[in-house]
Amino acid sequence: MNWAQILFNSAVTGSLYLISAVALTLVYGLARFPNFAHAEIMALGGFIGYFVAEQLGAPMPLAFVAAFLGSGLIGYLSYRGIFKPLADRGASLIHLMVASMALGFILRHTIGEIWGFSPLTFSIVWPAFDVGPLRISLNWIILIITAVVVSVGLHFVLTKTKIGKAIRATASNPKLALSSGINTTKVMIFTWFVSAGLAGIAGLFRGVETRLSPYLGWDILLPTFAVAVLGGIGSFYGAIVAAIIIGLAENIGVVLLSQVGLSTEYRIAIPFVILIVVLIFKPQGLAKAFKGN
Amino acid sequence: MDPILIYAVNALVYIGIFAIVALSLNAEYGYTGLANFGKVAFFMVGAYSYALLVQAGVPWPLAMALAALISSIFGLLVSLPAIRLREDYLAIVTLTFGEILRIFIKSEDWLANGVWGISIPPVFAAGDFVTGLWMNLALVFGLLVACYIFMSLLANSPFGRIMRALREDQVAADAIGKNRIVYKSQIFMIGSAMAGLGGALFANFVGYIAPESFLPIITFTIWMMVILGGPANNFGVIIGAAAVQLFERGTIILKDYVTLPIDPTNLQNILFGVIIITILMFRPSGLFKESKINTLGTRRAMRWLNPSSK
CB neighbours (10 Å) of residue A247? Predict the structure, then answer.
């Protein structure tokens, strides 16, 4: 058993979930509903990256920037066009969830209309090298570095900048934040943009590693929910820790699955089991451990 | 028989089956405010239970009843971890359960033939195809009427008032001594049983089921039926089921007559999304408003309050 490789793979899986879950949980904490269109925004990021890198022939870093900006723009537009008007009309939690699902369908089939439903692949080949017992590919290293940069960067934004403090204030008490002069609409716009942009980057990472399809985000969405719930909904630091835990659990779990002769398709069931256990015993997740949040 | 008539009867059977499932979501979401985002999972449990039981030689009426029962047990088990929490937790758990169930059926070939699916011997094999179609229509609509009557009685009973109370104000429901977790689980079981019945009818009518027949789009379609028709209005929900089915078929027919610049399936799904968001924004009560509680007592009270009416 190559434990070093399993640990490294866990870091890769965890990094992807981290980016996706931090993005989901930020909006979840602020808008107070799970955005089911998160999956399709991830897929969109992948396809925007594909458009820039493959169809326009631009270098890969530019593809990531485009994925961030393009998905972010969709996040902004969906807040302005759908979720803010709905919230202003007093839509219930269920209505917001259904609307986000509807947005997901619109996005998924718009992507399907533009790029088709058959899987696409990136032509870029990442250099891979061996370090001791480890097999490492460059895109994995970049993914891990991105996850670290996102965590540190957002930590800095949330604690040190004005907009970050406004985000935390709005998340903990929107009415009080509004009455103390915080422009909560601006805070929401910023959060939706950054969240959707990060989702787009997560989707592009997934796309370059595997294949692109309009269903791409769907595979990441379910573990992302598990991470968000385990971390405590809306908790940024909780999501970081939970992403590492779920990344580990999934990779160790896959090894165990193949050892007991079960299909590795059940990989997706591992986060689900963790989700159920968390809901039964500790529905508030790890958030309590991060009071300063 | 005229092919157009056959097509119409076929459409009616589909409408009937999905109306039953939509009624079940109406019990959960419309009356009680429970967010079941994995409706397709319970539909699937019903369909597969029925298929496996009939294959094992169980008589079909019993198999249908058992399929509903098995589905309701699944409903209880799945809802338990999340039902005491907020609606979003239940939505996440039920949605994920649907995905995992599909993967389970796909991976375990021994159980139900995995991705290849299984065929179900038709119930009305004695007659020819057309007779079978009419018999299916009678069966589905008979059960739809039964479900409709059951739901109307339930909605107007004291239990129905507790359902509404749970939706409107959980703390108040607690305060009058109603254990909301028990009630919610019961409603989830009723809803899952009805969805399972719909699944059994679907399996029987279609005659062949595979994991790919149970994609999350079905859950979304059923939500659309309820939201379009009018949550907490059983009649409205049935109209919603008919409207969504006809809309789905309409776009398929359209494909043969009109050349669109956009793929009809994509167009249909994009329109579904746009319609849902538009309804939520401008008419969240749906086409039909929530039906008033109608019992002997309320009728008397209304007459007493307003003698000039009637």
Answer: 24
B-chain CB neighbours of A36 within 8 Å are 37, 95
| Amino acid letter, residue A68 | F
Say if residues A76 and A192 touch (Cβ distance below 8 Å): yes
Bridge partners (DSSP) of residue A130 are A135
How far from A146 is each of A75, A126, A143, A152, B266, CA to CA, in Å?
20, 16, 5, 10, 34
Minimal Cβ distance to A106: which of B82, B85, B273:
B273
Q: Can you tell me the ipTM of this complex?
A: 0.90
Give B88's contacts in chain A (Cβ within 8 Å): 33-34, 93, 97
* pLDDT above 60: residue A140: yes
> Would you state the structure tokens that stand for residue A100, as one six-digit string?
């986000």
Give me the mean pLDDT over the B227-247 stretch. 93
Query: Any bridge partners for residue B208, and if so which?
Result: B119
Do the beta carbons of residue B67 and residue B204 sit within 8 Å? Answer: no
Residue B127 has a pLDDT of 65
Mean pLDDT over all residues of chain A?
A: 91
pLDDT of residue B84: 83
Residue A234 Ramachandran class (φ > 0 left, ψ -120 to 50 alpha, else beta): left
Write the residue in B92, B223, B227 that is nearest to A229 by C-beta: B92
Indicate whether B309 pLDDT > 70. Answer: no
E strands present in B18-153? 118-119
Q: What is the mean pLDDT of residues B48-53?
A: 95
Comparing CB atoms, the residue among A98, A104, A280 nearest residue B223 is A98
Instruction: Name the residue in chain B with its Cα closest to that of A85.
Output: B281
| B219 has pLDDT over 60 | yes
Mutating which of B39, B96, B99, B110 best tests the A interface, going by the most A Cβ atoms within 10 A?
B96
